[in-house]
Design a protein that fits this description.
It is built from 22 helices and 22 strands. It has 600 residues and is an alpha/beta fold. The chain folds into 3 domains: 232 residues, P-loop containing nucleotide triphosphate hydrolases (Rossmann fold), CATH 3.40.50.300; 81 residues, no CATH class; 176 residues, P-loop containing nucleotide triphosphate hydrolases (Rossmann fold, 3-Layer(aba) Sandwich). Strands 6-7-8-3-9-10-12-11 form an 8-stranded mixed β-sheet, with helices on both faces. The protein has a 6-stranded mixed β-sheet with strand order 18-19-20-15-21-22, with helices on both faces. Strands 2-1-4-5 form a 4-stranded antiparallel β-sheet, with helices on one face. 50% of the residues are buried.
């Protein structure tokens, strides 16, 4: 069910070697390694997937390929050669020129990576002028037109005059691709570039990337936490854990016969749009830098650990010409299908008085974004809102939370009228209806510790503070798979997945009856996502009602009882999740399903 599968057949990979990495090591102060012993190579036109949980070292490796390390870290050993040029020996102007002409980079969030003060045409011209001074104006214009056409963007003057904020998320990400490919680099590094995109836009971006890499002979390293997303994109996969490579395999070998227990754990945690199945989160946590246990770092979380796993660190060994694994007890058999999980019955819930009713909701900003939307959500039910970017999902969710503007319509909660403005709701309604935002970095106060963030609503709504508040904070952190020690941390010191879990904990500590989740799993690695979805399912069984906004139909299959499909502000289809996903009636729903990544 992925658009990438329908693009042109894969040509044979060119024989020229583009990237050679040898024994790369990155350290924090005190000789604490965050990356060690990384060795691999990449051919022209080859796409390499780099996967692992948050904190595994993926982004550290990706940025090290550009001879860069984050603040507080240093590249202390190894070699990175791109087209025969050693990047780690370059400094100053020579290194700046190599970053662009030799190697391109596409960041995760284009909204923060693109200069908001420059028009799209200026961004592209500035990039060419900085790196390819030999091009005259006519050649620059021709290169820009060709690149925009390659990435599927308009090349007309009107588009080039736009600012980044005037583009959709998908267009912004295509601009990021254009900025990388306009210089025709030998290598491009992409750090989770489709995380926040809807499935249709994601499929188009991935298809565009593959076509450009194969047609231009550009090698690519694609960083992701989701193996399902890269299944039809990459030629090879590298799996990282705690700063080490634990498995390197061809796409076919890894998905048919994953050898490392960690790789199998990642695959077992991924929700699949094709079927509802039990999601198995990997128990425990990855060790932080400086806290690696002796021997295999994954051993404390591994059901196959042997006595020797705690004495010596396993090195990558050949299982075949297509697969290498660092494990004393690797899996040698093909992957067995994961048991299907039954869809919970919702007919009984639907017969009860609904907790939330919406009738004829209209929302307008500079234009109307929702048109006469009506729905009912029963207590203990999970209703998923799906659709492409711009479909009105978040506008609907914010209106229910009382955060929308220019909204008209009727809302009823627990049988009583509910104001469209949160300020006009009483304290009970405000703490019972909680909203979890998509971007936790913007939702959390950077000047407050996790404890201050979580204890504030306890005091505000329930008058709980002091030792009693600390007990409640520790308990809610445990529920979202975070250690109690996290309470003293500030948001900037947490990973994206950890920040999202804190945002979820802040909502849960308010003891809500209705929880509105706005793309809350898009930034989480698959194992944490599995544990969060299991937590939400458990809370739902205890009576919590969920309004779940997402672009991931695999997540919808895993958690939702019913699904409502929005297109351009209008409801085009709704019903039980198995009926809508297995037998969609609307052409729009079928398009979403066709573009959804699947492991099958």
């Amino acid at each position: 069910m992925n658009a990438i599968a329908g693009i042109e057949a894969r040509p044979s990979v060119a024989s020229s070697q583009v990237l050679q990495v040898r024994e790369l090591r990155v350290e924090l102060a005190g000789q604490i390694d965050v990356l060690s012993g990384v060795t691999f190579s990449l051919q022209a036109g080859e796409i390499l997937g780099l996967v692992g949980e948050s904190g595994s070292g993926k982004t550290t490796l990706a940025t090290a390929l550009l001879a860069h390390a984050r603040r507080g870290a240093r590249i202390v050993g190894g070699q990175v050669e791109v087209s025969g040029q050693s990047l780690l020996t370059l400094q100053g102007e020579a290194l700046r020129r190599a970053r662009g002409s030799l190697i391109g980079y596409v960041a995760q969030d284009p909204a923060t990576a693109l200069n908001p003060a420059l028009r799209i045409g200026s961004l592209l011209r500035e990039t060419l002028e900085a790196h390819q001074t030999g091009l005259d104006r006519a050649a620059q214009r021709q290169r820009i037109v060709e690149t925009l056409r390659d990435v599927g963007l308009p090349e007309d003057a009107e588009f080039l005059q736009r600012f980044p904020h005037q583009l959709s998320g998908g267009q912004q990400q295509r601009v990021m691709l254009a900025l990388a490919f306009v210089l025709r680099p030998a290598l491009i590094v992409l750090d989770e570039p489709t995380t926040a995109l809807d499935v249709t836009t994601q499929a188009h971006i991935l298809a565009t990337l593959r076509r450009l890499c194969k047609s231009l002979g550009v090698a690519a390293v694609y960083v992701s936490h989701d193996l399902a997303v890269i299944k039809d994109l990459v030629d090879r996969v590298m799996v990282m854990y705690a700063g080490r490579l634990v498995e390197v395999a061809s796409r076919e070998a890894l998905f048919n016969r994953p050898a490392h227990p960690y790789t199998r754990g990642l695959l077992a945690a991924i929700p699949d749009v094709a079927q509802r199945r039990e999601l198995l989160a990997i128990a425990g946590h990855a060790p932080a830098p400086g806290q690696r246990p002796p021997g295999c770092a994954f051993a404390p979380r591994c059901a196959r650990r042997l006595a020797g796993c705690s004495t010596g660190e396993p090195l990558l060994q050949d299982l075949s010409s297509q697969q290498r694994v660092a494990c004393l007890s690797p899996h040698l058999q093909p992957l067995t299908p994961i048991a299907q999980s039954p869809v919970l019955p919702v007919a009984e819930a639907q017969a009860r008085t609904p907790l939330l009713e919406i009738k004829d909701l209209n929302v307008a900003y500079d234009r109307q974004v929702l048109f006469d939307v009506s729905l009912r959500v029963a207590a203990g039910e999970c209703l998923a809102l799906v659709g492409e970017s711009g479909s009105g999902k978040t506008s609907l969710a914010r209106a229910v939370a009382g955060l929308g503007e220019n909204a008209e319509g009727e809302l009823r909660y627990a049988g009583e009228s509910l104001s469209l403005s949160a300020r006009k709701r009483d304290g009970g309604q405000r703490h019972q209806i909680q909203y979890i935002f998509q971007n936790p970095y913007r939702a959390l106060n950077p000047r407050q510790t996790v404890f201050q963030t979580l204890s504030a609503p306890l005091e505000h709504f329930f008058g709980i503070k002091g030792d009693a508040a600390r007990v409640r904070v520790d308990a809610v952190l445990k529920r979202v798979s975070l250690p109690g020690s996290m309470a003293s941390q500030y948001p900037h010191s947490l990973s994206g997945g950890e920040r999202q879990r804190v945002a979820i904990a802040r909502a849960l500590i308010c003891e809500p009856r209705l929880l509105i989740c706005d793309e809350i799993t898009s930034a989480l690695d698959v194992s944490v996502q599995a544990s969060i979805l299991a937590l939400l399912r458990q809370l739902q069984e205890e009576g919590l009602t969920l309004l779940f906004v997402t672009h991931d139909l695999g997540v919808v299959r895993a958690i939702a009882d019913r699904v409502l499909v929005l297109k351009l502000g209008r409801v085009v289809e709704q019903g039980r999740v198995d009926a809508v996903l297995d037998q969609p009636q609307a052409a729009y729903t079928r398009t979403l399903l066709e573009n959804s990544p699947t492991l099958r």
